[in-house]
Amino acid sequence: MSTTLNEAQLEHAAASLDSAQLTGQAVEQFGDSLDLDQAYSIQNQLLELRRNRGERSTGRKLGFTSEAKMAQMGVSELIVGFLTDAMEISDGGSLSLKGLVHPRVEPEIAFRLSTSIGPESTEEQFLAAVEAVAPALEVIDSRYQNFRFSLPDVVADNTSACRYVIGPWQPMTPKLAGRAVALKFDGAPAAEGSTSDILGDPLLTLPRLLAMSAKYGFTIPAGSVILAGAATAAVALTPGALVSADIEGLGTVSLNVE
Ligand code: 0L1
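Above: the input record for the complex with hexanedioic acid. Below: its predicted structure, written as tokens.
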């Protein structure tokens, strides 16, 4: 039978995940001691710790929106995490692997909001608020040993959020399904998929995010970035690699690994 953590233990869990993120020293999974609501409460505490260090929220990211990711990690429910300015790397910029635990990269689609969206918003308002779309790379890095976790574990660890890179923004188009996605290392294919691998159509992530904003009571301010989740399984980063993601009709985004 599972036992849950008290307030002091939740605070301690947040502090240890925050420290793991800062030092690159992995921590043990919480396993059955954590439920999903408590996991989101730890995630909120992580955001507060980062804000207290001067970081600014830049958006939200979804996880496990593709079968490939669910199969890779052995979980089956959509999750949401936060993004901050400290996680952003400019297109073509560099990432040092120093201080990371076991980083992996995924090709994604990013949306940008022109107006604020929250629990009271309708699906129509959310769709209308998406002003731009871009190819993106997400670097994930689980702070748990061996990149293994339960669903509450990964939620508590801010859905393994680590860094992200946004490619050229394009005006929003409703035709996002069925586009080829290629993740490349030094120009050679490392993973391939389709934007349809993201819930059938990346746009279908938006109502799911709206439902989570209502459930967990968060708003997504104007100007925020939304990462819609990976189109392929994640690939381990290697020092010296030039990583790029091509999304048919949307362009290319790249990252240099140091
Ligand atoms: O795009 C995604 O599905 C990200 C999931 C992040 C969780 C993980 O695989 O560590």
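Notes for the reader.
The two ends are 45 Å apart (CA to CA).
DSSP finds six helices and 14 strands in the chain.
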